[in-house]
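ENTRY TYPE: paired fold submission
RECORD: A
CONTENT: sequence, then structure tokens
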Amino acid sequence: MSHANFPLLLGSTRLGPLDLPNRVVMAPMTRNRANRALEPTASTATYYAQRASAGLIVTEATQVSAAAAGYPFTPGIYTEGQVAAWRRVTDAVHEQGGRIFVQLWHTGRIAHPINKPDGSQPVSASAVAPQGEIFTYEGMKPLGTPRALEVHEIAAIVQDFATAARNARAAGFDGVELHAANGYLIDQFLRDGTNRRTDQYGGSRENRARFLREIVEAVSEAIGADRLGVRISPSSAYNSMSDSDPEGLTTWVARMLDRYGIAYLHLVDLESSDGETPRRFTALARAAFGGPIVTNAGYTVEAAEQILAAGTADLVAFGVPLLANPDFVERVRLGAALNTADQATFYGGDDKGYLDYPFLDGQVRTTLEPVAVQAGRA
């Protein structure tokens, strides 16, 4: 295999203000390796810089406030120290010619007070408890019933996202992605399995999407809509999530977002595909959203090329392949074998399973020489 086999995936494209050398997106992946101040470390800078050949990096989910935290050792972007630490990460990526967005996050009900710097009770759209347990600084604990947010608190969280977006630009990020997927706070408002509200934030799809819309508007005003992506997962049951009409919700959200001229819409599309038929939720989004679409969830490079050829998506996000292969793009170009991921080191720990995956020549590179910065990253 060679570039000739994957001309679309390896071909350049435009995304908002950015020129991307390929259509490979590094999907956001939680790694639980921040320090106790919830700052990314020097190892984090190396980790992302190693993978800067991806067309776009989207970082691990990053909380917008102390109250937004849910898990141990996940980074924030609300203190001066966190912003300064992220600046070292973005500088390292940009020195390698890369482009990087930060994923902005509020975990909502998927949280435990032990994991929150302010010790606050988890909140959600409604007081609906998720199933299961969560890992904390004190070991595994059951997930509890969240407190339903008051309307005035919702407005404050909207502003937390806008402030985080401004902090992201100050930290050198090329843009931000709103984490409206995977059962976290924005998703908890979007889907009727968790949103039982009877006020202006509940009931109809329009009302359930109001929280997302207000954040999109506030972030767009703060940094520009062309530096904003949104990730949704309307069909995912992860974190005890459900919706009575995920297809209708997908279409509604995509049409709503289409009005704002955002950089992209990112679909976590878990629907199976035979490789010929586009995945259902990505196709629904394509019909309703005129901007760039990123699709994600278990794609092979062959399936990625097929969906790009079909025109259903414009970019494809890869998770584990990029986690285990810092030079994933070059391996695709050459048709080379991929490293096997070590699942035992996905979450937490030291640099093992983080910085020590070898490049194609068998070498581990934790010291990287700067490369020429590519145009179109302003």
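RECORD: B
CONTENT: sequence, then structure tokens
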Amino acid sequence: METSLKGLFQSLCPQDVTVIIGRVVSDSPLSIQAVNDAKLTLHENLLCLPKHLTDYTVECDIEELGLSGGKIKINNALKTGEIVYLLRFNEKKRYYILDREG
């Protein structure tokens, strides 16, 4: 029985969707290479990058300090060397980055 995260995603996806593991080889511009296929390098134009894997700013209130309308910058962009899980879809033309490892 497959118990890995990759196996779980693949068991939940339609047949034409595949989960692959990649390594970030460049963070600017973003480029990811498949771990098991050194010939497959994906560049920004093929990747769908979710907001939670970027640097972004959110508004927040901190009631205990009496602050409202403040902003917090979240530094969560992918970095070179990180391992990521990608969902391959649209006949292998697009790759959605699910999350980073660990």
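NOTES ON RECORD B: Helices lie at 5-12. Residues 5-12 form the longest helix (8 residues).
STATUS: closed
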